[in-house]
Amino acid sequence: MDIVSENRSFGGVQGVYTHDSNTCGCEMTFAVYLPPQAEEGPVPVLWYLSGLTCTHENAMTKAGLQEHAAMHGLAVVFPDTSPRGEGVANDEAYDVGQGAGFYVNATRSPWRPHYRMYDYILNELRDVVTAEFKVDGRHGITGHSMGGHGALTLAMRNPDQFDSVSAFAPIGNPTKSDWGRKQFSAYLGDDEASWADHDATMLLEDKGWKGDILVDQGGADQFLDLLRPDALAEMLARRRQAGTFRMQKGYDHSYFFVNSFAGDHVAWHADRLY
Amino acid sequence: MDIVSENRSFGGVQGVYTHDSNTCGCEMTFAVYLPPQAEEGPVPVLWYLSGLTCTHENAMTKAGLQEHAAMHGLAVVFPDTSPRGEGVANDEAYDVGQGAGFYVNATRSPWRPHYRMYDYILNELRDVVTAEFKVDGRHGITGHSMGGHGALTLAMRNPDQFDSVSAFAPIGNPTKSDWGRKQFSAYLGDDEASWADHDATMLLEDKGWKGDILVDQGGADQFLDLLRPDALAEMLARRRQAGTFRMQKGYDHSYFFVNSFAGDHVAWHADRLY
């Protein structure tokens, strides 16, 4: 692992790092915020998964998570959203290929060799972060848009590895959306049965979540028809899943929405991880 | 004035606007954060002046000021750092020309026609903001680096227009620094007597400030020799100027430093404006 940069932030350290990923078969960049409490001993981890077109950097600079993580004593990990590099398949569209990994393990050409963000986040990067930073085994996960989809699906499929989950404007029902069908078809093939493991609404119906779930959604979000929060909220209620779905009047899909509620989400995770 | 964008943020509105500036002779872009309290009636204004290479956008997205402004009921204005456009003089260097207005009124060619950021901020943009937004006559000013220099010099020269002042890692003594001598020579000419009005340390000695001043400086700032905080701090003490100078161990010159202390600065201004 190489250090790209480290900056003091709210008494802790905001770092950016690279490492050679076996899972993705390329160099990967990620960021970690370590709060001041990590100087005393290992702290719990909050994973933040970003949305389409994002890198490790968007949330690191714009979500305002560090202030709250420092207050509550959580590390925050900001992974990239896909493999990258010259040898990595790509597409001219913003919503397939680099910057759009969708947190799945691709099984179809040309994506299969590198597009393994599901395993990468769940296993390899978790091992790297655990080995290199003062963190412990308590992990929560959140994310925005495509990253909210990733957070919900990774958590529900792996309740032994996560203790808390939340999401900002997640893609809630991707098997019924152009943010989902297009990508699952490319990465996983046309057998829609293989898509169900990556649809938060379907996972909620099938498995649910051991704890409670927090979802914030902006009421003025310009992508409501693609995100399908109505399907997710309906399933939350129908399944009697413990949780909170908040429709936040006037907020859109931007980081001005995410950072407005970043404090609530960090506190939510801290309550459940400590 | 035209609206470029408006996003809900912490219960208020973060907007970006353009207008035709008579002072600068070009279209200018600026951002305004209006807190939720502005719905009830006019609120005080905090000006945030940015540093070299910045636009209205850097602090708006990375400084984390909105959360604190919403808590305390302050509007925040984020001006650009220079005139811009095809007809506006420029230089290949990052520290002269577009993105580097230094908050002076240029008197020398080729800068004189457009580079009038001192008058622009102090008069024209203040009038626009006062006319277009629910703000009142209570104004505070802060800024980072070149913008910290701007905040300190505008405030000390215009105590009737500002009620509070602070700065993040300001260029504290530009007449003795390559961040200052080069630009003042270009914009104002070689008569160094004309530079004194734009040097915070010299203004502190000559005029001082009617209230108290807050300055934060990162101890690991990579530009300490250009910023000269030692000269500013020494003059603060020598003049017995009411104020607080904080050397913040481990922090560098980045927005990770600025946003770590944004809450303190907003609270400082709110205490003095309300």
Can you characterise this structure?
- The structure is a homodimer of 274-residue chains.
- The first copy, chain A, is of the alpha/beta class and 274 residues long.
- The first copy, chain A, has one domain: Alpha/Beta hydrolase fold, catalytic domain (Rossmann fold, 3-Layer(aba) Sandwich), CATH 3.40.50.1820.
- Helices cover 33% and strands 24% of the residues of chain A.
- Chain A has 9 helices and 9 strands.
- In chain A, β1 and β2 form a beta hairpin.
- The longest helix of chain A has 19 residues.
- Chain A starts with a strand and ends with a helix.
- The mean pLDDT of chain A is 97.
- The interface between A and B is medium-sized, with 24 and 24 residues.
CATH H-level homologous superfamily name of chain A: Alpha/Beta hydrolase fold, catalytic domain
Strand content of chain A: 15-25%
The radius of gyration computed from the alpha-carbon positions of chain A, rounded to a whole number of angstroms, is 17 Å
Secondary-structure arrangement, i.e. CATH architecture of chain A: 3-Layer(aba) Sandwich
The global form of chain A is globular
Biggest interface, chains and residues, is: A-B, 24 and 24 residues
Mean pLDDT value of chain A: 97
Give the count of structural domains of chain A: 1
So how many helices of chain A? 9
Pick out the low-confidence regions of chain A.
none
Q: Strand count, sense and closure of the main sheet of chain A?
A: 9 strands, mixed
Oligomeric form of this entry?
Answer: homodimer
Structural class designation of chain A: alpha/beta
GO molecular function, one term (chains A, B): carboxylic ester hydrolase activity
Active site (chains A, B): 145, 221, 253
Protein name (chains A, B): S-formylglutathione hydrolase
EC number (chains A, B): 3.1.2.12
